[in-house]
Amino acid sequence: MQALRNMQQRFLGHLLGQGGEAIDFIQSSPQASAQQRLDIYATGYRLRLKEALQTDYEKLHAYLGDALFDRLMDAYIDRYPSQATSLRDYSRHMDGLLKSLPPYCDVPVLVEIERIERAFNHSFDAADSEPLRIDALADVPPANWPTMCLGFHASLCLLSNRYNSFPIWQALSNDQVPPEVVDDPVSWLVWRKDLISRYRALSEAEACALRTAISGGNFGELCEGLLAYHAAEDVPQQAVIMLQTWIAEKMVNAIEHDRWSRA
Question: How far apart are CA 97 and CA 95, in angstroms?
Fold first, then answer.
């Protein structure tokens, strides 16, 4: 068993470009030498990782073009070797690489495009849950509304963008020439509803309220944040309208009761 493990580790080291001297375990054939056969495995492994990155970032690929995206993939594979048998989360470090690696770090809209694609990937395969029914609000005692907290569907992603990255993404999705990059500070929401990934832009007020709720803030804290956007007498109504919208769009899956007992 130890000999087998040693062979596996040396073979893996070769695939990852870390040495390993695995050639001793490979036989030559009339068609290819031992080194050639070993290199076929290493090349195939790298191509499989590139295929995973290309699948996750079709729009980023289209925006950068083949040459720049291929350089990005090579840099990513060299810096972040695969650590798991599944490739589902292999591309999770891409935003960090885009922030640090020239020339990509000089184009900050790339990070936003990457996050949009990652949000849609996540919305596709995030764990499912039963959405909250609107009539569940009737069961909340009036005295408990201020400390009421919400649980959200696992697919939900709130993106706070500085640039017009969503219009760029939309153009790329429709095989159109993307617009020039301009400042366009808008928050966008991505989630899954009825097995379909959805997205929409948010007003500043709704983005503030949703950010508070997602981070664990209660309904009272959510209302306090809305005072920056609405008159005090209008805040309760606006907050309830938002809450009803989130429930109708199947974004909410639970009302948390824990804080009631702790208050």
Answer: 5
